[in-house]
Amino acid sequence: MIYEFNNIKPVVHETAFVHPLAAVTGDVIIGKNVYIGPGAAIRGDWGRIVIEDGCNVQENCTVHMFPGITITLQESAHIGHGAIIHGAQIGKNVLVGMNAVIMDEAVIGDESIVGALSFVKANAVFEPRSLIVGNPAKRIKEVSDEMIAWKSEGTKLYQQLPADCYTSLKECEPLRKIEPNRPIASADYKTWNETKKK
């Protein structure tokens, strides 16, 4: 659902995919190969939201702000299921974990990782390559090259997802029983813990 607000319409690049069950309102600018999942609320009613190329904002995320603020999710930012970004700046190639909350005027430096369920206080500033966890969130160590490579690989899946949605996602009636030889999705990308076992 794309909504005009105060005579301002969202701008969505033709290669981006906004799920029909997401809501994008007002002064929102969405770049190339961006994925916006179902249930996401991107509210540019009181300020501007810029979602740069290659970002993803997954299911049930909220992006909003106090009046007059511009939020930028820089290139390849990866916003996990249920996360809230409220008036914060998210650096390039950052991973925000599931159900994390990033508060007003916080700054998450490039290539940082914010753990799931973390709470980043208003005005907190984290340098690039910070591993950020807890409530209140703290930097516990530097993000390694191995960690950022793993994150980037996962983000590439989401950068491919808009094209996949345009070619194969369609509303349908459910089957009433499982068909023989039903395909199973490949497991090429592993969780961080599985990767560490190698």
UniProtKB/TrEMBL annotation:
Q: Name one Pfam family in it.
A: Hexapep
The record's section on InterPro entries has: Hexapep (IPR001451), Transf_Hexapept/Carb_Anhydrase (IPR050484), Trimer_LpxA-like_sf (IPR011004)
Signal peptide segment: none
Coiled coil segments of this chain: none
Its recorded name reads: Phenylacetic acid degradation protein
